[in-house]
Amino acid sequence: MNRPLIASFVFGTITALTLVTLNPLSIGAEAASPDTYRQLNLFGDVFERVRADYVEETEDADLIDNAINGMLTSLDPHSSYLNPKNFRDMQVQTRGEFGGLGIEVTMDKGLVKVITPIDDTPAQRAGLRPNDMITSIDGTPIMGMNLSEAVELMRGPVDSDIAITVLREGEEELLDFTLTRAIITIKSVRYHQEGDVGYVRITTFNEQTASGLDAGLKELTKKIGAKNLKGFVIDLRNNPGGLLDQAISVSDAFLERGEIVSTRGRHAEDTQRYNARSGDDANAKKVIVLINGGSASASEIVAGALQDHERATILGTRSFGKGSVQTIIPLGSDGAIRLTTARYYTPAGRSIQAKGIDPDIEVFQESEEAKKALIRGEASLPGHLSNEEGEKVERRSSGSFVPSDKTKDTQLNRALDLLTGKVEWPVAKTEAASNTTEQPTTVAN
């Protein structure tokens, strides 16, 4: 059975994926024209010329790999070639345990851009932040490398150190960090009691997420007491995505019926719809979902589904806007290709590609750190897939900073105040923090 994914890679771009097993030579496509074969002959001529005359000896496999990757990466920021090693790494990562730094990255203007550090990993503990631009690794400049080459530099034996130099918006000088590589075990769900409110933090969507949420909802309900429980806060801030089936299961935990998400490809027959099963694991208690500019892909599926069904109130800032689906097509012993094949839609038929999910209640964090942690999301990535509506989508900068001190967490405290009745629910469901009358318009990149 094919298993859909919306995978977030610790060393890769945020992506939405569907894993399929296909014979790459049997994939349906229109017959190539004579001109296409002429162009392929041109590629062969260039390949032979490089092999024969380049100033240094080249590796045939490297030339072919780079040519394939160049073709795919020219399509959009999320299509790429996975060599056998990277393909194995991807499969390991979706299981929730792997070696590395615990950092989500993409390529932007020739540098490695941090999407988000994952909780309780070397990257998060060292102080890396969303939108940090990595300029060098162990003294080797990033400029001129592709993402795969930069990622390879970041990998290494567990317990070995790595030096990273970062360009950060608002800082006059480059920042140096030393991280120790570690086995990254992603505990995707954490939860605790906040008075009469259950708080559930989902950091990524891996194979452990649905069971972790189920355990959290049950334990919090038992600990607080069903009669005293005011509701749940589901924190998806800076959650970059993960497995599609887990996003569906998380949404289903709060829904009795109806569509959760649909995916639509190039052809009408490619449309797929995923529906909820009966049963509300939260027992109809109020739910507030926290999102921000670092909430992407699977996070946006959950937020969009619960918002459209009016099952939850979405609070925070606009999400990343990653609304395209990538298909992983294995190539036998030669790795796989990751190809954008569809867009995904919320139950109301909204495509969030390059738009994101707008919160019902807009609340920005109140701190100097938050002002430096602005993110424009998918719409700012060069070559991104446009929104199919054809309109020019202007995206306002969103915050991606989450304070470690919960007393300073404006978004969380607003959610708790709403659930406990300390403040009234706004009629229009739109508000902003008191010191954010001017909406941020700059981007940190």
What this model shows, in words?
This protein has 445 residues and is of the alpha+beta class. Among the domains are: 97-185, Roll (Pdz3 Domain), CATH 2.30.42.10; 189-322 and 344-420, 2-enoyl-CoA Hydratase, Chain A, domain 1 (Alpha-Beta Complex), CATH 3.90.226. Helices cover 24% and strands 25% of the residues. It has helices at residues 34-53, 60-73, 84-93, 122-126, 147-154, 209-224, 244-252, 298-308, 368-372, 410-420; strands at 3-5, 17-19, 80-82, 97-100, 103-108, 111-117, 133-137, 140-141, 161-167, 175-180, 182-185, 189-194, 197-202, 231-235, 259-265, 272-275, 286-291, 313-316, 324-330, 336-345, 361-362, 374-375, 398-399. Strands 1, 2, 3, 15, 16, 19 and 20 form a seven-stranded mixed β-sheet that branches. Strands 5, 6, 7, 8, 9 and 10 form a six-stranded antiparallel β-sheet that branches. It has a six-stranded mixed β-sheet with strand order 12-13-14-17-18-21, sandwiched between helices. A hairpin with a 7-residue loop joins strand 9 and strand 10 (175-180). Helix 7 (244-252) runs parallel beside helix 8 (298-308). The longest helix is centred in the N-terminal third of the chain and has 20 residues, at 34-53. Mean pLDDT is 85; it is low at 1-16, 21-27 and 430-445.
